[in-house]
Amino acid sequence: MIRHYHTIRDLIAEYKSGNKTVEDTIIETFDRIDKVENKVNAFILTLKNEAIQRAKELDKTLKKSGRKTKGKLFGIPIAIKDNICFKNYPTTCASKMLENYIPPYNATVIKKLLDEGAIIVGKTNMDEFAMGTTCESSYFGVTHNPWALDRVPGGSSGGSGAALASGEVPLALGSDTGGSIRCPASFSGVVGLKATYGLVSRYGLIAYACSLEQIGPMATNVSDCKDIFDVIVGNDPMDSTTISKEEMEQYLKKSFKDFPNSKGKFTFGIPKELLGEGIDPEVKKSVWDAIKLLEDLGGSYEEISIPSIDYSIACYYIIAMAEASSNLARFDGIRYGFRSEDKGNWNEVFANNRLAFGKEVRRRIMLGTYALSAGYYDMYYLKALKLRTLLIQEFEKHLKKFSFLICPTMPILPFKLGEAVNDPLTMYLADICTVPINITGLPALSIPCGFSQGLPIGLQIIGNYYEEYKIFQIADLYEKNAHTKNTFPKI
Amino acid sequence: MTEDLTDDDIKHVAWLARIKLESQEEINEYKTTFNDILRYFKKINEIDTEKVRPTFHISRSVNRFREDEIKESLKEDEIMQNVPKRKDKFIVSPRII
Amino acid sequence: MSRQELEQLGIKIGLEIHIQLTKLKTKLFCGCNADYRDMPPNTYVCPVCLGLPGSLPSVNKKAVEFAIMLGLALNSKISNKTLFYRKNYFYPDMPKNFQISQYNKAGGVPIALGGQMILKFKEYDKRINITRLQLEEDPGRISYDGTILSSPIAYIDYNRAGITLIEVVTEPDFETPEEARIFLQKLRSIVEHLGIADLSLEGSMRCDANISLYGKNRVEIKNISSYKDVQAALNAEIIRQKNIYKHGGEIKQETRHWDSDKKRTFTLRTKEEEQDYRYFPEPDLLPIEISSEMITSIEENMPELPDDRINRFIKEYKLPRYDAEVLVITKSLADFYEDVVKKYQKPKEVSNWIMSDLMRHLNTLNIEINDSKICADDFIELLNLIDKGTISGKLAKRILQLMMESGKKPMEIAKEKGLLRINDLKKIQEFINKVFNTQPKAVSDAKKDPKAIHFLVGQVMKLSNGRCDPQITNKLIKEALNKI
To answer: Is the pLDDT of residue C184 over 70?
Structure first.
């Protein structure tokens, strides 16, 4: 395990000073992977030879340049969720459907990471097509929570969360459609950010629900998380929904003069819907401890109400399933993906091929199809889009007043393996704190805030649109004072 | 309010979604789960949204365009490496009808 | 059937026309080369138009501008805000298994709404109302071993997938198949004058028609590939429906396909199911807002439209309206006309030549002027040769035909085939002598009756393949007769 540094910046400094080579880091990384992977199963694919090869090249360029590099992620191993296309390597979405699929192009975020010198060490496990809260629906087996191997690591980016928590890698990318970065960050005790919708290109992210999801950074501390975010953020001509360069200057890069104010004070709101009934008492306790700490650090809070949150799970799942039913229609086995024997005509073979989807994926496609179908569109889909408007309005009202909103990331402690698999609705309900953020498109970060029975608990910090840097600032302050940085389980 | 889904509803949706149903047991299972979930979804109709406009796009920007300039297409092997069935340069589908 | 007969059938026809914007360099949502014709299958494809997982569309700006131009030309109202929608239906030629389109029954607004076109006929003017214009992507192409019904597999080529289409939908305002044909012809002319597409390209303009008789059930006819076909397809369908009604039958609402070889419509016997397209706004594309400034700037740069060009032809070239309309309805012909008139300034004569002989040959060869072997300069040379008396007007017609068949220059053909006019007195005299020797009776007739001279002139012309100058011939025959 690469433990003798605090942040990736320290590691890059080591390279520059010549104390350590990139190859050393990669060898340590794979030693660790070899040691824990059979217990954790965080990866679908590891790329040892390729990583070592690239490390050697980076060492050479570093030497040639007189130990100078501008790469923000120079020589840093990173794990990529397996729904992000990495050219010429299998990208499976943890599905039998794409077991043998080789993307002929790189996702925009992959290009950006490689341009900054990152080394991709593997593709991480996930819920099939990112549809899940537990990382159990993967075709390639479940991922175990490194803090308690009989528990789930959270989902859907569970492999990324577990790879970080078990010390296999210092950085990872996940994707977050309804909490898929923040949930595993919370359950696995790491830091993860879902940025404002449109800040990170989705080009090359295999879509589950395009109006809700963002690729995002995951790390073991706030500073590292911010460093990957800096690399992947920004306009992409290949993704029309990304922020324009002008908007980027205008909104994201503005400074927060009033935060904290001259006396070091700031305010935050606590939505009572997310810290009342239905929240595990242990979780509640940890979050209240965190709130008290924030008070000590200059914050003052008010309890607020965002009534539409009560409808957000229904709203989220209707929109997500509807979009998924359309996004996943392309998997017919003609151009790529699983192809059964050609028994019958096109439609019949099509329907047959789709048995390569697991149960939950089929469920969501069917329900989404239903929600969009003639006679039900207004009642489900259109209604959900109207609720989306209400939720946005309610959140915006409070975010104008407060610097942040604070709540738990997950209302419960990590499920036991197998506990929620056969009860989709129970699993959906666990997303209550995370889905409003995807519905509204707001940014939110999950940061460890304590333990119960040895299981991590996550604090969710929600900011206003484009206020990621403010979130990082408070998260960093919290992390320093709560001493949650780089905590790892013993495995 | 609509009634619970029937076997026929499940079969219809499965066909619309091109998902093969393999057994009656499976239909029953879908029926139970879907009815539970839909009952929960219907909660949203409690809220009055008469005067609310739907949010069709979460991004508030408009008019994102690309110039009409040619970019390189994929190479043959890049396309074909994933194609389950091909004939010469064609991609092959099962018979249509 | 006559117009009166047709009127009694209470025909209502509406058209949905798909026009490929072939003047775009790239596809609607990706940078792949749009010039796919004659390319090997699956050459111009990329992650976007092949629908690879993770790819996202981005809108071709010029496609939007072209659509606005057509909307303005058809007097439509350009929408100030328009969205793309997903039309969810499955077919192997659709890479994503949904089509990005604009129409939505839930109330989506396409790029342009309304509009009209006035069709001019000898006896009446006809106003055709346009419902809407929308942008959408073309699917790929499927080919078969034999037919769709017999082929054990289907072969798919995605080169066409993602090509920009404008769909023009009309109200059911047509009352005869001819009106539909003229509409398509005029629409084509407008599109080509705008410079947004070359619709002579195979498959670049495709049409579906819906048709009902006596206000009864509507039948949709698919797969009509040209304006020439539309009249044939509609006629065939009218006769089919008429006969069924005549025998007391009913027409069911259905979709039929046009078979242009067998000249009939047929129904595909498949499990007919109600289509449920599950339209919803495309989340991957932002709304398009069209400002009045943008419209104005496009409007100011609009090229001359057919109706303006017709008026200009009337004014500038003093052509009768009929001539101007015939020329301008085919843009390439109007261009050819102007190319000729620029250097040969007898506009009415040029128009006569084009409208009679040239067009007849084009029709016989079933080609358009751009595909023919004749160029404006050669045509001008031909007209000059007539004026100079080098060839006769009559022979010029024959030479024109040979020019169109061979692509050779008129002088070259005239020499090769010995079609130059004979002005040489001696040579003409030789022909006259031959006729006088072989036709003594006609000579003596002509001696008595001067009117019979025409016969002798005709014989000389026949003998010389029409090459002898008729006036000289006439004169020399008279002189010869006087000498007898």
So the answer is: yes
Q: Is this prediction's pTM over 0.80?
A: yes
Domain that holds residue A127: 8-255+439-482
More confident residue, C305 or C482: C305
Interface contact C87, partner A, CB < 8 A: no
Q: Mean pLDDT over residues B62-73, rounded?
A: 97
State the DSSP string of A86-138.
Answer: -TTS---TT-GGGTT---SS--HHHHHHHHTT-EEEEEE--SGGG--SSS---
Residue A260: is the preceding peptide bond cis (ω within 30°)? yes
Partner C, chain A 70-89, Cβ-Cβ below 8 Å: 83-85
CATH topology for the C425-483 domain: Arc Repressor Mutant, subunit A (1.10.10)
The answer to whether B81 faces chain C, any CB pair under 8 Å, is: no
For chain C, helix (H) and strand (E) counts, in that order, are: 17, 18
Q: Where in chain C is the domain with CATH 1.10.10.410?
A: 425-483
Collect all residues of chain C within an 8 Å Cβ-Cβ radius of residue A210.
283-284
Which residues on chain B are in Cβ contact (under 8 Å) with A344? 94
Q: Quick check: B55 and A392 in contact, CB under 8 A?
A: yes
Chains in touch with A (3+ beta-carbon pairs under 8 Å) read: B, C
Element (H, E) at A218: strand A214-219
pLDDT, tens digit, for every residue of A178-204? 999 999 999 999 999 999 999 999 999
User: Quick one: residue B47, left, alpha or beta (phi over 0 = left, psi -120 to 50 = alpha)?
Assistant: beta
Task: Report the mean per-residue pLDDT for chain C.
Answer: 92
CB of A441 closer than 8 Å to CB of A468: no
Count of domains for chain A: 1
Is A123 a domain residue?
yes
Polymer length of chain C: 484
**Which residue from A206, A238, A330 is facing C95, i.e. has the nearest CB?**
A330
Residue with the bigger pLDDT between C150 and A227: it is A227
Give the CATH number, domain containing residue A36. Answer: 3.90.1300.10
Query: How far apart, in Å, are the Cα atoms of C395 and each of A168, C430, C477?
Result: 92, 21, 22
Distance CA C27, CA C21 (A): 9
Sequence-distant (6+) residues with CB within 8 A of A160 are A42, A79, A80, A81, A124, A126, A172, A173, A174, A181, A184, A218
Is residue A329, in this structure, part of any structural domain at all? no
H or E stretch covering C317: helix C306-317
User: Looking at A161-165, B24-28, C120-124, C131-135, which range is the least confident one?
Assistant: C120-124
Structure tokens, C89: 């239906």
Provide the residue ranges of all domains of chain B, joining segments of one domain with +. Answer: 7-46
Q: Chain B contacts of C286, Cβ < 8 Å?
A: 57, 59, 61-64
- Cβ neighbours of A241 in C, within 8 Å: 283-286
Q: What would the pLDDT profile of C74-102 be if each residue is shown by its tens digit?
A: 999 999 999 999 999 999 999 999 999 99
Provide the 10 A C-beta neighbour count for residue B28.
12
C344-368 pLDDT tens trace:
999 999 999 999 999 999 998 888 9
**Distance in Å, alpha carbon of A168 to nearest chain C alpha carbon:** 27
Identify whether A425 is part of a domain. no
Q: Is residue A155 part of a domain?
A: yes
Q: Which residues of A are tagged catalytic?
A: 81, 156, 180
Distance, CA of A138 to chain centre? 16
φ, ψ of residue C153 in degrees (nearest 5):
-140, 170
For B23-43, how does the pLDDT look when each residue is reduced to its tens digit (9 = 90+)? 999 999 999 999 999 999 999
What are the tens digits of pLDDT across the range C256-265?
Answer: 999 888 889 8
Q: Is B53 on the interface with C (CB under 8 A)?
A: no
CA-to-CA dists, residue A286 to A179, A274, A283, A430, angstroms? 20, 14, 5, 17
